[in-house]
Amino acid sequence: MTPPLPPLLAGPEGPAADAGWGAGTERKGFFTDTSICIGCKACEVACKEWNRNPVDGDLEILGSSYDNTGALGANTWRHVAFVEQTKDRIEEARESGRKLVSLGMPSIGPKERAVPAAGADTTPPDTPEFRWLMSSDVCKHCTNAGCLDVCPTGAIFRSEFGSVVVQSDVCNGCGTCVGACPFGVIERRDDGTVSAKVDREEPVPHRGTANKCTLCYDRLVDGEQPACSATCPTQSITFGDREDLVEEARDRLAQMHSQGRTEARLYGANSADGVGGTGSVFLLLDEPEVYGLPPDPQVPTKDMPMMMRQVGVAALGMAAATALAFLGARR
Amino acid sequence: MQDIANADCIVIEGSNMAEAHPVAFQWVMEAKKRGARVIHVDPRFTRTSANADRHVPIRTGTDVVLLGGLIRHVLENDLWFEEYVRLFTNASTILSEEYADAEDGEGLFSGYDPETGTYDNATWAYAGEHEQVRRGLPERDESLQHPRSVFQVLKRHYARYTPEMVEATCGISPEDFAYLAESITSASGRERTTCFVYALGWTQHQGGAQMIRTAGVLQLLLGNVGRPGSGIMAMRGHATIQGSTDIPTLYHILPGYLPMPKAGQDDFREYVDAIGHKEQKGFWANAETYTVNLLKAWWGDAATAENDWAYDYLPKLTGAHGTYQTTMRMLEDGVDGFFLLGQNPAVGSANGRLQREAMSHLKWLVVRDFHMIESATFWKDGPEIETGEMRTEDIGTEVFFLPAANHTEKAGSFTQTQRMVQWRDKAVDPPGDARSELDFLYELGRRVREKLAGSTDPRDRPLLDLTWDYPTDEHGEVEAEAVLAEINGRHLTGEKAGQPLSAFAEMTADGSTDGGCWIYAGVFADGVNQARRRTPGAEQDEIAADWGWAWPANRRILYNRASADAEGRPWSERKKLVWWDEEQGHWVGDDVPDFPATKRPDDPGEPGKGGAAALAGTDAFIMQADGRGWLFAPTGLVDGPLPTHYEAPESTVPNPLYLQQSNPTRVGFKAGEDNLNSPGALGLGGRVYPYVFTTYRITEHHTAGGMSRFLPYLSELQPELYMEVSPELAAEVGLEPYGWATVISARSAIETKVLVTERMTPLRIGDRTIHQVGLPYHWARGDQAIVTGDGVNDLIGMNLDANTQIQNSKNNACAIRPGRRPRGPALLELVEEYRRRAGIVDAEHHVLERPETPRDAQLDPTDESVAHHARGPEEAPAVPVAQPSQREMRNR
Amino acid sequence: MARPVLLNWPVLRQLRGADRTGRGVAVMSPVTRATTPRTATADGMTESVCPYCAVGCSQRVYHRDGKVVHIEGNPDSPVSRGRLCPKGAASEQLVNSPLRQTTVRYRAPYASDWQDLDLDTAVDMIADRFLEARRNHWQDEDEHGHPLRRTMGIASLGGATIDNEENYLAKKFFTAAGAIQMENQARI
């Protein structure tokens, strides 16, 4: 007797519980508060050093302010975007944020937000002439992860921390997951190299397989936090239980709104969005597109539960047949 | 460092803290979280500005005017912290009648000698009876009304530094000035403190030391020294650059800031009295003790009372022998051998081309580094090989490249920017031939001594008598802790013989103790390596006194006696740090009190005794001979007792304040065509080299690149040299975003990618627009590093601050044109063409004399860059004091 | 490699366990199950200090078989609280850099390329040259007869990542040799 499947693949107890880990596991995640990011890129480096990821790109200025690694990909699992804005754009951001506030966005959440005391000054601060946004992007570790759902080999799994991790020893590099990520995060690591000068002594790991942030699975199993959040000088990146982080993010948002900074908004905290919310939550100071993030990400496997219901029996039958064949072969 | 979080307002000026010191910047963010206001004053909008409450763009090199304007604002509006100023500063001190201020001398103070370009500071002295002044008791007027009181002199000196002058000189709007002034004054006083943060953005100017001093004067007036969240934080750039000055590898000092003796100081007594005589107030009265301990540490039993502790073993100076003077000597073939210990002057020093040429004159060069840096390979892939100026087969320099051990491969200590000494443990052995400097220097010394063994030549005695017997480990490497123990010092005789000193107070002048660096005494107290203490911060209070060890005496905030009032009570509960405990009869508090521990606040001091005993209970500035914080500096600076604005050597703006255009004591070098300056406001240079360029570091790289351009993860983050320009300038010159540009100075020309950005702001100065561009200096030409590019320091001339002998990297003039630079000899032709147009050389490559005044310059009457007559800076000699050239010195 | 245990075959685990959709526990590979960080497999960890800027961030250096395998911030430090900037975070590459030089290189006068040289020979050659340069440019006194007791034939310029103990020996030795032109990044 199978209970009815939820509309999306992840169950109400969270994605880890649904992946066989039981209800007791806490889903871990990141909160990246871009309002205090100083753009130092320590997260990019600490990530690469820990994961032994190779250098990206062709070692030329990219043409995107101080960003020269471009985007998340097979080799870059943390990426800092730099956006230079003048006054008119800042005003637009503030206005679009104000609309979100009037839609009641910041009040979503289990507990009452700190409301500014009566008479408190909520006049927006003077709009500066210029601002320079910096934001560290990372795999979202979606509640409903397209990459995980479509992986035909079982190489991608949902860990006990609720993160989505590629097992390179299983991955055959088919690349199905690449198209299934609504954020364009996961990518196949090619065999090329930028320059002999940048090669490490040991061979580049995980060549020819799909690669992305593992939420430092290999640190979490030992009780350590991920390399990026550990190194972040201003703690723009924090790591912890997702629930607490979302709470923190909402507090921070309410605080900024109370200062009239309506341009602030959360990204990934809403469990009703097209991926069921993300493990990596962000506080942004403009619309997501400005940072290169999709405004309304949708998991491509949204309709999969329905499909699975229909093909479920057949699939089980096939699996059983395969198992029998295997048993036969072993004997 | 953590103390920054206690500030109520933080002004970051002359520093790009978020980029150059990201981890320290967490404390600024912490302060901001607690409600502090953060203001960034900088020519560029940087990652620091992005996280500040406001960015105030400034014309580079004009900080004395801005800070002087703030001083005036504080004085005119009675916003100074009166009780603090009266108690702890020399505001009430009366100056000598002979003193004449720069206000009365068109930018020159009394005592200037135009022949030598130097000052005699005799007239800057305090008034009073000679012996009393010597004992730190000059004439004072506590009403602060005496016209020659420091307070009144200060008021007059800055009277013309008005907000209008700030706008006309710095390009800062009255509104921004008012915001800054309001921010710092409202965050100062009993309850609140303001902190300034600076770095090389102040130091690397001609007059850089005076920029820092202006902030010092302002902070003293606001009562922001020696208190929580106060002060002027120097954000130093290298792991132990503080240690490199404390235990110096600098020509002018010995360990513990004892000066190197000068020629003529033939006698030990004369030498120590010049540092500090026994009758003076404060801790320099013990200069003799510190010196004796150093000499005992170095020459052991050979240093005796009879031979004045081997004082004549010390070599003597004849003027400045800084790295740029040495460059000039190399060019004259006056230096045979050069050691580069983790340094890359071909890239990192001013006038890179001249640096490389100088090295080609050496007989031998030793380079010790991790990577094959450009200073090791200039003879085969330097830019001069391409231009044809040098040919590999003509360069006779013998080069030894020795691989160095890195920070994980040796034990030792670094002293960070706040004087905290931290020990590193060794993790692994260095690979291959890599060795530590400790090992190399010890081994070199051992062999040199071995080769000299048996010599009867008196000039070899200092080497042969040197204490050079350090214990070694199982690999034959010197134990670094043994060296630290020598630095700390020990008892040589008596009951405690052999035991380490626990404080410099235990040092004696009779030869019964030794110690290599008096300010480090205590770092090995009780035979324990105190620098290795690592009680986690979470288990300590904010001061964290049990992590590492800070000199002196593990004190974290200097002059902290000033955190309490005349009676020894904290100025406020919110800002308490140390205070007088009447019951215990002792100064107590969170930090180690920076004051004689049992001296009562109402102690009048015993002037007759000298030293610490002479200090009164309110003489918080215990290193000063009058116990006060100096608003006016009668000694210590060679270019004036009060900070005064001068324009940079190549500035195109006439000095709006004085006829004296640039710093009268500035140090320059005549090196034919190789170290020319644009005449700026004094000639056509203002139109030929119209733009100001300023150089800096960025987060992703380190200094000359030896530790960053060879690392893959850092190279990819910032792979290429770029120049930051405003959209207005890009349009004026015709530069494409992310395209190429060529930058030409009077020294050289380089090519760079272009970042067109609103982060650069053209400034309105009078009726002109000044364009400033930014150039990070990390790249170099060569074929070894992962990423390469033109070296920005090739553009910079050797123009030094006379106080520090540090070059002006922050304000130089250039021309800019779109596209890449020419290759080969055509590059030299381009540079030459601009020099000719600027009138600094003629068609036959002869250097033309620089005009002395605009009147002599026969200026084009249509050249609007010269608004009024300015007196030209006289070319100062290479050294600030008359130094006989090498040839004049007799060799016996 | 252990022989695959039949009962651990993913599909069977999927059918048997709570991970009905085969996206969690059921599909974990033996390699994944054995995941251990290299901080845990290191022979040891030593505490160090970052060699870049002067903030003095504390580092934890993990090493195995005589090689540094990882460097990260030390959360115990009251100054840095475990954080490192990109340079500090890259300092493992400073140890294991592909471009790091580990042997002595020698360029003879006028030569067009490097050659190898034994370390011991190199140090001995330098000691000889040191003494010769010292003699060549020795000055006993100035023109007024004041003692100088120095040589102008030798100069040095050091980086500011040289330990206090190293600077101390350098200053001590050079001063005793009369070599006054000793400078440091602190001047630049």
Give a short account of the largest sheet of chain C: 3 strands, antiparallel
Give the proportion of residues in helices of chain C: 25-40%
CATH class of the largest domain in chain C, please?
A: Mainly Beta
Q: Work out the count of structural domains of chain C.
A: 3
CATH superfamily of the domain at 2-234 in chain B: Dimethylsulfoxide Reductase, domain 2
Helix content of chain B: 10-25%
Pfam family, one (chain A): Fer4_4
Organism (chain A): Brachybacterium rhamnosum
InterPro entries (chain A): 4Fe4S_Fe-S-bd, 4Fe4S_Fe_S_CS, FDH_Electron_Transfer_Unit, Formate_DH_Fe-S_su
Keywords (chain A): 4Fe-4S, Iron, Iron-sulfur, Membrane, Metal-binding, Repeat, Transmembrane, Transmembrane helix
Notable characteristics:
heterotrimer; B: 892 residues; alpha/beta; Rossmann fold; 6-stranded mixed β-sheet; 5-stranded parallel β-sheet; C: 188 residues; alpha+beta; N-terminal domain of TfIIb; 3 domains; 3-stranded antiparallel β-sheet; 7 helices; 25% strand; disordered N terminus; repeat (chain A); 4Fe4S_Fe_S_CS (chain A); iron-sulfur (chain A)
Question: How does this structure look, described?
Answer:
The complex is a heterotrimer of chains A (about 325), B (about 900) and C (about 190). Chain A has nine helices and ten strands. Chain A has about 325 residues and is α+β, with helices and mostly antiparallel strands. Chain A has two domains: about 270 residues, Alpha-Beta Plaits (2-Layer Sandwich), CATH 3.30.70.20; about 25 residues. Chain A starts with 14 loop residues before the first helix and ends with a helix. Chain B has about 900 residues and is α/β, with parallel strands linked by helices. Among the domains of chain B are: about 230 residues, Dimethylsulfoxide Reductase, domain 2 (3-Layer(aba) Sandwich), CATH 3.40.228.10; about 120 residues, no CATH class; about 120 residues, 3-Layer(aba) Sandwich (Rossmann fold). In chain B, the strands form nine sheets. In chain B, strands 21-23-22-27-20-26 form a six-stranded mixed β-sheet. A five-stranded parallel β-sheet of chain B has the order 3-2-1-6-7. Chain B has a three-stranded parallel β-sheet with strand order 10-11-12, with no helix packed on it. In chain B, α15 crosses α17. In chain B, about 65% of the residues are buried. Chain C has about 190 residues and is of the alpha+beta class. In chain C, strands 1-2-3 form a three-stranded antiparallel β-sheet. In chain C, strands 6-7-8 form a three-stranded mixed β-sheet. Chains in contact: A-B, A-C, B-C. β12 of chain B pairs antiparallel with β4 of chain C. Chain A: It is found in: Cell envelope.
